Amino acid sequence: MRWLSIILLAFFLVACAPIKVQYDYDKNVDFSTYKTYQYFADMDTGLSTFDTKRLLDAIDLKIQTLGFKISETPDFYIDIKSKAFQTNQHSSVGVGLGGGGGHVGGGLSVGIPIGSSQTNAELTIHFVDHGKNQLFWQAISTFSFNANQTPDQKEAQFKTLVEKVLAEYPPKGL
Known about the structure:
The protein is of the alpha/beta class. About 25% of the residues lie in helices and about 40% in strands.
């Protein structure tokens, strides 16, 4: 029973894979000059229409709590791209059979995969200066994504994702 608990805990931890975020920015930019934002009109997020709306709503909610306002004449534009990819489980169980004696030998081996592939997503968010048309901040996040989630679960996941992504905006120590 103890081993079953350990195995279930391991699967639970893998299923709740953390959101990983990498940041990059122009260290010569004065981030305090940016007060208003807008999304690129021709933005293709790579998400479904509903997921795009959930993501933009989560961004609006978070970025407005940081003091920014959406505007038709913004200081910067937000561009979002995403892509999904499969990761294969590398765990397997091997079963082998061998024999030999005298001058005769043989063998058989079978690999049985454990688990299944997992769908992950990579979300890239760019902040582009409107006047200079120049990228000044970027976040690239990877997270596990389940297309079979309910709308409420997807909304909660996008809120958590945006909280993590925008936790480092504006960059500290500038």
